[in-house]
Design goal:
Helix 6 runs parallel beside helix 9 (211-228) and helix 10 (232-260) runs antiparallel to helix 11 (269-301). This protein is 48% helix and 13% strand. A 7-stranded mixed beta sheet has the order 3-2-1-4-6-5-7, sandwiched between helices. It folds into 2 domains: 4-228, Alpha-Beta Complex (Spore Coat Polysaccharide Biosynthesis Protein SpsA, Chain A); 232-301. With 326 residues, it is α/β, with parallel strands linked by helices. The chain contains 11 helices and 7 strands.
Length: 326
């Protein structure tokens, strides 16, 4: 089957960059000779960019524009692009002219080597060091450590995906950057390639230092979903048993102080700590039971399976035997 490529572009208040970006993107894709489409997702722009983009499909049928009623965020725009893309190779990228469209052929070439996800690394990143590069390096190291996929640059929007990898992934919050982690947990092959990065010359950046804290919170969610989504009792029950064990230990220390050191129990702060930890542990165990019931209801009510099949190999069926041959 011939590959069809879908370029997915979340756009929010990038009116000054849209014309040079779309021109550079179409020139790059025309030079490849590939079958492609461009999806521009207007994430509630207020600078007139949405109206400008709506005129593009009349000039080029390969461009489609999806407009949101308001700003829902980059992850929502990415999810809309995945849902409406018609291609089997999906390439998201930014419209701010910092990602270079000329790197797209290299992403496609890597996908065709057999990889399911190609993540791009802005090796020579052209952004402020303190507010962008330093937080990004710390976040990338943390995500690599917890997610188990060693990548230099999770934040680069330019990536490549096979459709079958992302169609099982539901995106919320700021979780588009964690798609390589989700895909790897599902058995996908992930590669990373260095790409060019240009300084922003038009428009205003939508990213700030505060986004780092959102990434950390989303990372906790990703870890919980990846490790305990089908077995929440292992997390809550394990934490509860540890708390109960600690409470019991502090209770024994309280008794020891009472009978060996003549310390009155009501004057010993360890008693309060023991009661608190034991009650907390019991609550955690019951939370685990409730979470198990919710997970079972989720999978069984929607007919979902807790696994993803790559392929099934089996012997071909025996040919029908003629009655005359018996």
């Amino acid at each position: 089957m011939t590959d069809r490529i879908s370029i997915i572009v979340p756009v929010y208040n990038e009116r000054e960059n849209l014309e040079p970006f779309t021109r550079a993107l179409t020139e790059t894709m025309e030079a490849t000779g590939e079958s492609y489409e461009i999806l521009l997702i207007d994430d509630g722009s207020t600078d007139g960019g949405g109206e400008w983009m709506e005129r593009l499909p009349a000039r080029d049928a390969r461009i489609r524009v999806i407009r949101f009623r308001r700003n829902f965020g980059q992850t929502a725009a990415m999810a809309a692009g995945f849902d409406h893309a018609k291609g089997n190779l999906l390439i998201p990228t930014d419209a701010d002219m910092q990602n270079d469209p000329r790197d797209i052929p290299a992403v496609l070439a890597k996908l065709r080597e057999g990889y399911d996800v190609v993540s791009c690394w802005r090796r020579e990143r052209q952004d402020p060091w303190l507010t962008r590069k330093l937080p990004s390096r710390l976040a990338n190291a943390l995500i690599s450590r917890i997610g188990g996929v060693r990548l230099h640059d999770y934040g680069c929007t330019l990536k490549g995906y096979r459709r079958e990898v992302v169609e099982h992934i539901r995106l919320y919050g700021e979780m588009h950057r964690f798609i390589p982690v989700y895909a790897s947990w599902a058995g996908a092959r992930v590669a990373e390639i260095p790409v060019r990065h240009h300084p922003r010359t038009r428009g205003k950046s939508k990213y700030g230092l505060g986004r780092t804290f959102k990434v950390i919170l989303d990372l906790i969610t990703v870890k919980m979903l990846g490790s305990y989504s089908t077995k929440p009792m292992y997390f809550f029950g394990g934490s509860g048993l540890l708390a109960c064990a600690a409470g019991t230990l502090f209770g024994l220390l309280t008794l020891y102080d009472k009978y060996c050191n003549q310390v009155k129990a009501h004057n010993n702060p360890l008693l309060l700590l023991a009661v608190f930890l034991f009650i907390l542990g019991v609550q955690f165990v019951f939370m685990g039971l409730v979470a198990e019931l919710l997970i079972r209801t989720y999978f069984e009510s929607q007919g979902k399976s807790p696994y993803i099949i790559l392929r099934i190999s089996e012997a071909p069926p025996d040919p029908p035997r003629s009655p005359l041959s018996s």
